[in-house]
From TrEMBL:
Pfam families: SGL. Residues 128-298 form the SMP-30/Gluconolactonase/LRE-like region domain. This is SMP-30/Gluconolactonase/LRE-like region domain-containing protein. Gene3D superfamilies: TolB, C-terminal domain. Residues 1-20 form the signal peptide. Keywords: Hydrolase, Signal. InterPro entries: 6-blade_b-propeller_TolB-like, SGL, SMP-30/CGR1_Lactonase.
Amino acid sequence: MVYSKFDPISLLLTVSVVSAAITQYTAKPLINPSNSQFGPFIEGAAVDDEGNIFAVNFGNATSLGTLGQVTPQELFYDDKFTKGTAFNALRFFIKKDKTFAYAADYANHRVVELTINDEDIISRDFCTDLKMLQPNDLALSRAGFIYLSGMKWRPDSQVGDGDLWVCSPDGIPKRLEVLGRTNGIELSPDDKYLYLSEAFNRNGSPVSNKIWRYDVDSKTGSISNKKIFFDFTKIKTQNIDVDGMRTDIKGNLFVTRNGGQEVLKMSPSGDILASIKTNFSFGTNIEFGGSNGTTLFIVGRCGIDTRGHKAGCVDTWENDAPGRAWWILQDNE
C-alpha cells in the first residue's frame, strides 16, 4: 500500500519521455469503475492452482478484511472474527495435497493461514509479531518461508520506516533487516534471489525508489549479499513508487509503478525489456494466472475522480511465459 502526493500529469509526461526507447504495450481493461465489485484498496493479487486470480478489498472502502475472486467477481473470504482486520497481500500454497492461502493483515501485524477444503475455509493466526511495521506484502518460497515487507509512511522518510521479516514454515517470525520504506517483494523462480523495493520521501513526495536483490538460502530462509538491482534515478522516475512485484519462469521481474500508469518488465540482469501501460494510474499489484499461467493481471485503484476513487480496477496483458507462482502450483520444479 502506497501513500504519496504527486502531480499525475507531470509523472505521466516524465514516464513517456524516459521510456521512449522501451518497447511499449497497452494492457486490456477487464474490470472498470462501472462494473467493479472491489474497493479502492484492491491489492495483493494472487493465483491458485487453477489459474484463478484473487485480490484483497472485495466490497467498498471499508471492506478491508475481505478477499475476493476476480473472475467471476465474488467474495472468497471475510474475516468477521478479528477486530480491525486489514488485508494487503495474499499467496496460495499447496502442501501434502492440501491448499492453503496466506494473507497479510497489516493492522494486526500478522499473517493469517487459510486452509481451503472445497467451500469450507478454516483460518488461524500463522505468524505474528507486534514489532512488524505491517506487513505490507509477502513472497512465498517453495519450502514455505514467507518473506514480508512493511512500511511507515511519513512526509520525510528515514531508515526504520521499512522492514524485512521472514516467517519460518512453522510460523516463527524473525526480522532480517531495517530499511527505508519497503513495499514490493518477490523471489526469483529458482528461489535463489529475493527482490525488495525501498523508497524515501521528502516533503511528502517520493524522491528515491530502488530495488535490492539478496541471495537466499532456500533451506534456512536466511539472506545475504545485498546488491542494488535497479535504481530508478537511471531512468529519472525515482519519484514514482514501486508497488507489487512478480517474476515469470524466465526470471524476468515485473514491477508495478503506483501513479505511473505502467508495469515494467525487467530482465534478470536489470535491463528494462518493456513498459505495459495500464488504463488506470494507480496500479498496486500484479499476478500471473489464467489457464496457461501467462496472463498478467494488474490491479489497482481506478482513478482520481469521484467514482474511480472508490473502486478497484483490473487490467490484463499476455506474457510469453508463465508466472512463477502459477508454475510452482502446478507441481513444477
